[in-house]
Each structure stands twice: as structure tokens, then as C-alpha cells.
Automatic annotation (TrEMBL):
Record GO biological process: methylation
Keyword Methyltransferase: yes
SUPFAM superfamilies: S-adenosyl-L-methionine-dependent methyltransferases
Transferase listed as a keyword: yes
Pfam family, one: Methyltransf_25
Protein name: Class I SAM-dependent methyltransferase
Organism: Candidatus Anaerostipes excrementavium
Gene3D superfamilies (alphabetical): Vaccinia Virus protein VP39
Gene Ontology MF terms: methyltransferase activity
Key words of the record: Methyltransferase, Transferase
Domain Methyltransferase: 37-121
Amino acid sequence: MEQEILYAKKWDKSAKYFYETKRYDWMAEKLTEYKTILEIGCGTGYSTLALVEAGHTVISVDKNSFCISKAKELVESEGIESQVQFIEGDIAESAFRNYLKENYSYDMVICWNVGTYWTKEMLEFYLPYMIEYGLTVQKIEENPESSYAELIVWETCRLAAESNVPIQIVDRGTEPIYFETDPYYKNLGVEFGYIKVYYDNLEADSISNTGCMLSTNGVVDDSERVRIVLISVIFE
């Protein structure tokens, strides 16, 4: 519980920075034709706020109850709570994915900037899921964060495909990604039966040492600001 609270506080600072620098606006501007958005990983609500401001109704999911609480406080303070439904749950679990499919209607699924904290217990819990997805124990142990992110993106794509709706993934990287240089996403789209893929990249930065610490290839960067590339990939 202590780790959940600490992560919620740190991510709140990072997410607020993305909101104030209009990074979430850049992500949301690609979704204008879709009314209701299923948001996998709402964090503390700043991405949700940007989506509502862009004209969407939002179904926001997060497994961290403290993130959900902060997100609810934020949207209530902005007077937009009628435009958002918050659901606590873990997209890695099939029962929860089925619950979403059976009980909610949405036009688009998004997964922006996957992240979480790590404990020994969490690694033990997610290890079977990540192995089932196709990762090796060695890769998982070397970089649990990226392994977890791959799992969540994969499960989100599976949910979107089974719901017969498009999906937008936004990730953080160090270099732009295009169709010709894409080592991962276009194969992911093919796996789930999507026939169109659209890429966009934005040179940006993120706070690190005062928010959620960023890492590259498992190496943590404790700089105040870290240069990143935001990568948007849409499957239709």
C-alpha cells in the first residue's frame, strides 16, 4: 500500500507536467472522430481531464486505488465528473477484460505511457502473465518495467480487437518510430487483425527526479528533465 501511495504521488507530478505542457492535448487531438474513450491506465486523471476537454466522454481504468482517488478529486474539482466513469481493475486479468467488454460501450481504446512501481510480490504476481505473453524469465528480471509495459499494451490490444474498435498506444522513447523503422508495433497490429497503422512522433521532455523516474534499457535517469520522444501509434 505504501508503494501504491508513493507511485500515485510521483506520477501525479509527471502527469501534471504532461498536462501543463500540452502533451496530452497532442495525444488527444488524434481522436476527434471517436466519442467515448476507454482509457487503460488513467493515472491521477490529468490525461482524463485532457480527453474531456477535447470533447470526449471517458471510461477510465486503473489498478491503483490511490491513483483513482486522485483522478476523481481532479475531475470533481473541474466540474466534469458527469463525463467520466472510473473503474478500478487490472487489464492483465481476463475476468476484468471480460467485465469491461460485457458491461461498457466505447468507440476507441487508448493506452498512454504505461508505468507502475515494482515490488518482489508484484513481480511474482505478474510473472506468469508475462511468460504467457511470451517473455523469458531472463528478460523480465533484467527489465521488469518494459516487460510489464509490453504485457499491458498487448492485453489492451487484445481487448480492443475483441471489442472491434481502434486503439491508440502512446509510448515514451529516445528516437522517433516510423513504419519503415518500426521493430514492434506493426507486427502487433497484424497479430490482432488491424489493417491500418498510423504513426506520429513528438520531441518532448519529462521530469524525472521529482516525478516518476525514467529509465532507458534498465538504467534510471535521475536528471531533473529528460529528453524523450512521444510516439503515437493508432491501429484501425
